[in-house]
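Many introductory courses stop at the sequence. We go one step further.
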Amino acid sequence: MDRAARSSLGPRVRLWRTRAGFTQTEAAAAAGISVAGLRDLEQGRIARPRPATLRRLAEAFGLSAAETAELVRDNASATGISVGVLGPLVLRAGDEVIDLGSAPQRTLLAALALSPNAPVSRDALIEAAWGHRPPANVVEILQTHLSRLRRRLTPEGPQLSATASGYQLNVTADQLDLLAFRGLTAEARAARERIDVAGAAEACRRALTLWRDAPLADLPAFHDHPGVAEILLDWQALVLEFAELAAELGEDDQALAPLRKLAAAEPLDEAVQARLMLTLAASGRQAAALATFDEARRRFADELGVDPGPKLADAHQRVLHNRVSKPISASASAHRQLPPDIGDFTGRAAELRWLTRASLAEAGGTAPPIVAIEGMAGLGKTRLAVHFAHQLVAAGRHDEIQLYVDLRAHSDQPPADPAVVLASFLNLLGVPGAQVPRELDSRAALYRDRLHGKRALVILDNAADERQVQPLLPASPGNLVLVTSRRHLALDGAATLALELFAPQDATALLATIAGGDRVDAEGAEQVTALCGGLPLAVALAARRLQNRPLWTLSDLAERLRTSSGRLGELSSGTRGLRAVFDLSYRALAPETQRFFRLLGVHPGDDATAESAAALTGTDPATARRRLDELVDEHLLTMVTARRYRLHDLLREYAAEHAGEQERHAAVERVLTWYLYAADAARERLFPHFVDIELDPAERPGHLPGHAGDEDAFQWLADEHATLVAAVGVALTEGMHRIAWQLPLVLKHYFERLSNYKDWITTGRDALKAAQRIGDRKAEAMVRSLLGVAHGQLGEIDVCVEYFTDSLALRREVGDTGGEARTLGNLGVAHTNRGDYEDAIGYLKQALELSRRTGNQHLEIRTLSNLGRAQTMSGNADEAILSLEAALGPARALGDAIGLVAVLHNLGETLLRVGRHGEAQPLLTECLEVYRDKHFRLYEAEVLELLAQIHDETGSAEHAQERWREAVAILEELGHPRLEEVRGRVR
């Protein structure tokens, strides 16, 4: 046996590897085994590999489940555990039968094996093993038996696991004959659909060899079990199918053994007895066939009191007159295959007009119009195609022939084989089955010939790819092809309609059409449509929910959608649900793309880039870009710019549902860390001398964005603004507190530049919570200072001073001298704005001393600048000018552009106050240019006000008004509290 296995297995593995296009190295990597191990296997040096090795090879080579089961069963090492239920229950380790022990253990294994890979409730197991009168401690006894049963199953064999309500036997086709039988049955029917009669017959033969006897024949408790009855019916049907296939091949005698077994089991089944007669006669056993008829006739008379029915009588006549060969099947012509139109079809007027234009063949053209409708699941692509087709037929266009097929790109079944579709189309067009060519190209040629010169419409619904569609395209210019797909199809000559979400008015119209116009109000419709994300299927399902609940209002429905823990669960009606529709798209993805998709569901913010997606998934940007493009092609992702990608809200929720907790947490931590360091890289470019927080270089991730200049860095922050804000909230929620308090500090100067106080304060408050939750006093001091600056710029001085005072106490508590200098300086600015100039100057002088002590020249420049402003406001302009001029030289020398512009601003204002307009104006004009270049919006408005004052005081009223108006426009944009005060200066 080992020698036979060794001689046959190696060449088969080599053949499969070559067919799959793998080298030995590639195949070994795909299967997760060593190259040496694969080489030994191919060269016959390993006679009985482990079952797991064979399964991995089968998966790598793309073998079917039935082929895998047969491969493992015939070639695996003898230690593999398998269960047999197609006959008496048996548990084997290779060729050795394992004793299952007590009757309850045998019964429990049988009950679990009848429902493989599916939960069996505890109550069902108890009833199977102990009937309706179980012992009092039956649960404990059940657990004991299952524990003993589990010990009989090795790690290589079936696995018994507990579920929420019972237990489940996890098993593969090579470990359970029932699964292998079903896999081969499916393989036979798929081959028959392809008109591969020989392949179908071989799969039937292999399946029937697994049949030992009636399922669980040794366990009386299962003789009337519904699961056993179902298996018996499947076996009976397969025996009859095998007999038909054998007859087509002229090999009737191959079916005699299983037919005789079936006839013995079903002596009163007329169809079975008739088929046995015909098969016996076709095998040259006419006398045996006539004897079978006589015996069946007596049995019918004795047991049923009736004569044989028409099937048996017809078979008898055919045997008598030697007419048992299979007749050539005739084909009925059926040209009009359009599915019914949809009664509640609503909207899409613009799309229907576009389709009308695209479907018109050009005068003198030689090719048929091909129109592809693409888009994500739930957009109504099929509905639109069918509705448009009915419009065309009603208008007298393409009314001669209409063919429709679901190509099953996204289905519980495999995608349709073009060869099978062509065979079906040819039958519908009147070609008898026996005259349908075997080769795909020949079928396609005959199909094109049958449609030539006809007004034919072909709908290819739910297409998988171009290779599936291409053979199904007719060639005559009078034909029209409508293709729908969730994927992007690159079809030569096709006009493509990328279907979008519903316009609000279309969504409202659909709600009214389904639920009734009297129940739909504008406000409620807007809420429901928004919660459905404008997805037509979601809107329709929501409307059905409302239709079936007459006591609900549209607001009630909106509230359910808004407050439900999962909108996908609410968006269902009857057996239809959005989740099931999304499932088909998800299952069609490759495993790595599935992982990529589900992790995008936990990406912070609405958009992702290749770089952020790479961080999220732990890949590199090039790989991420490929995966993102795959999802765009599958219409599971939308490109919102050339670099940014977005999931629809409902798809985001669906994707997030599929991410495991550990997988999700790790992904979120990766992407948040990446955003923290990416934002810091932009800050470093824009504000190299403003370092509020030093990040740990050891945690710096790879592929951070590089910035060619300040504008590039600023644009990156602007593009990622919403995501960065969302990232802070996500970090706080996820317990990633270090990121939650550090990121707002990194973003502080960006928010200050924009004067975006809402996001500045919101993220700052989250940062404060994070710092307090982990008890980091130094972090809390930094965040309180950050919040103080934001409130100070809004003019909320009391709140600002409170934050700074608390921050100062914490700085001193933890010994943060540099931080103490910053907070003292901030307190000085706050008191200046409050009008407490003496206190302000005191704080600023303390800050100046500490900044000099720590050697921080940049902080010294800012402190001198703020000191000069305080001195100006207190009326001591001479000292102010001295302080500001002392800062001006070092700022220019150090190249500190931000520090320099602050000095220029304050010095210009001081010179203005003392009437030195000629000196103040160029400084402020220079300052204005820098603020505009650096996007400091509030400071730009402040300088515009100062220049307006100069123009007013120097008699240039027209220029002054121009500056006032510019300042008002900025303050309006920012929603700043000083808006009305400044607006009062505009005449």
